[in-house]
Write a structure and sequence with these properties.
It comes from Gramella jeungdoensis. By secondary structure, the protein is an alpha+beta fold. It has two helices and five strands. It is globular and about 30 Å long.
């Protein structure tokens, strides 16, 4: 699985993406959220953080497979 980081999530993690072979035991978006929050505690400080699987927004209950591309989409502001 490939994980992409955008905006502030990229700053928190320190890179724009990584292959998450180490996360093979992750079954759902919620599992991944918990693991990333434990590894990068500053992610928990974001007011909202959406996940997308293969370019579609995904709820925490959505299953993840090894071939998925997952994006972390932080809150955005604009005007």
């Amino acid at each position: 699985m490939k994980i992409l980081f955008f905006g502030i999530t990229r700053d928190i993690v320190g890179k724009p993406e990584f292959d998450a072979g180490e996360f093979k035991e992750i079954g759902t978006v919620g599992d991944l959220r918990d693991l990333l929050n434990a590894k990068y505690p500053r992610l928990k400080d974001l007011s909202s953080l959406n996940f997308a699987i293969n370019e579609e927004f995904a709820e925490d209950s959505k299953a993840i497979s090894a071939n998925d591309e997952i994006a972390l989409i932080p809150p955005v502001s604009g005007g």
